[in-house]
Amino acid sequence: LAKEIREIVNSNNTFNIYAMKRDTFFFGKLLRYGGHQHDYPVRLFPKGKARFIQPVHETLETELPVKKLNSVLLHYSTRDWNHYQQKLREYIPLELETMKHLGKKPYIWKVVVFPLLTFLRLYFLKLGIFDGRQGFMYAVLSSYYAGLKTFRYYRSFKDK
Q: 110 or 59: which carries more pLDDT confidence?
């Protein structure tokens, strides 16, 4: 991957942005399903030709065409329980700001519905069930994350 990126950077190609296949490791195991089988984030683009439009689980805004690199990015998403808790502390405040900026409505029913839908989508629809214990853990913790951020967002409006 580093060699492929160097070749692109040295060619001074400012007409494309590049997505790369990302292999995600969760608690030390490669996740092959749960939505990760089609994970191609954009991570290489010419300076000033694209911008991230949210700070967590980024999406990129650009008018340039996207090409895919051949090499794979290894992503060690969550090493262990302590690392997961650290990510919650860092990501949720950023997520709340994004939700507020986007004008999301804070409904209490979302606190129950979003986590349930998150679990069902990741574990069954995205086939996380085939990742065994790690797939189950990923779906459960992703559901917890969805519920926690939704609850905190709801509470931030209720407390005012």
A: 110
| Rounded Cα–Cα distance for residues 79 and 56 (Å) | 18
The tokens describing 158, both together, are: 């209720």
Helix/strand number for the chain, H first, E second: 4, 6
Residue 63 one-letter amino acid: E
- What would the pLDDT profile of 114-158 be if each residue is shown by its tens digit? 999 999 999 999 999 999 999 999 999 999 999 999 999 999 987
Residues 6+ away with beta carbon under 8 Å from 8: 18, 44
Cα–Cα distance for residue pair 62/52, rounded to 1 Å: 9
The SS3 assignment for 66 reads: strand
The type of residue at 36 is H
Q: Give the closest residue to 78 by CA, choosing from 131, 24, 121.
A: 24
| Rounded CA separation 50/58 (Å) | 12
Which tens digits make up the pLDDT trace of 52-85? 888 888 888 899 999 999 999 999 999 999 999 9
Do 1 and 19 contact (CB within 8 A), yes or no? no
Secondary element (H or E) of residue 18? strand 17-26
